[in-house]
Each structure stands twice: as C-alpha cells, then as structure tokens.
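Quick start: read one record
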Amino acid sequence: MARFPKKTAYVACNGGERCQSCSYGCMTCSSCMEACRKDAVFYNAYGVAEIDEPKCIGCGLCVKACPQDIIHIHLTDNPFLVKCSNKDKGAVARKVCEVSCIGCGICAKNCPADAVAVTDNVAAINDELCLACGNCAVKCPRNVIADTRGIILK
C-alpha cells in the first residue's frame, strides 16, 4: 500500500509586538477559523492565526478563506517554514516587523538542494526539493525560517 505524505497548513506570518503595521500579515479576521472544520486554527498571543498541526488534515479550506493569502499547505516531512509574507524591501520590512523577511537571499545561497527561492523580497521553500538540512534556518539573519521540530534554536 502506498504511503501518501501528510500535508498540513501553516501561516506565513510570525506576528509580534511591532508587526501590527504590516499590511501583508494576519488581519485577525477569523475567516480561516470559520472555514476550518477540524477546529485546527487558533490565535496566538500576538493575535496571529496559527495551525494546530495534529488537528489539521491539510484540506486547504483555510488557505482558500484567507484574504491575505498567508496560509499555505506544506508537507509535514519538511520541518522548515518561512514565517513571513511581507513583500516590502528590506528597510521598509524591518520597520514594520522585527521578524520580517528582507529578501537578502542568504537562505537561498546556502541551500544545497536549491529548494529556497526569493521572489518579491520574500523567501519560499519548495517542499519537493528540500532536504530538511536546516541550512536556511541557521543562516537566516532575521530568524524568519522556523523549525517546527524545535531542533534549530537561535
């Protein structure tokens, strides 16, 4: 019997105390929460939507419901997630969020599998190519790439 990789959703927004002025982040509109039939979406301490991975079945209803397009589906085998959707250039992104991607490309340059690309000033990881080595998370100067396993800490 073939094993299908498990998929789950994640929110590409770190949130934070200074992130309230980011026009690309979570608006706390609750569209994703209302769309989720598994009660897998909740708000963290910063008011940013998060996904309870064990509850999530990867159906994508929250992805379709999000007006900001910041919720994505990923393979759970890949523990590395880019937790930012800010498309502003470096200096502007830094002003609105303490943990924003600045599009520097260091993560992409250090990826041995060419699984990381920077488009519109924000990094993205291709799950199909990712080796889960963690180079991107270790090298990211802004701590934008999260390790869901909690192994790589800064």
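The helical segments are 31-35, 61-65, 90-96, 106-109, 135-139.
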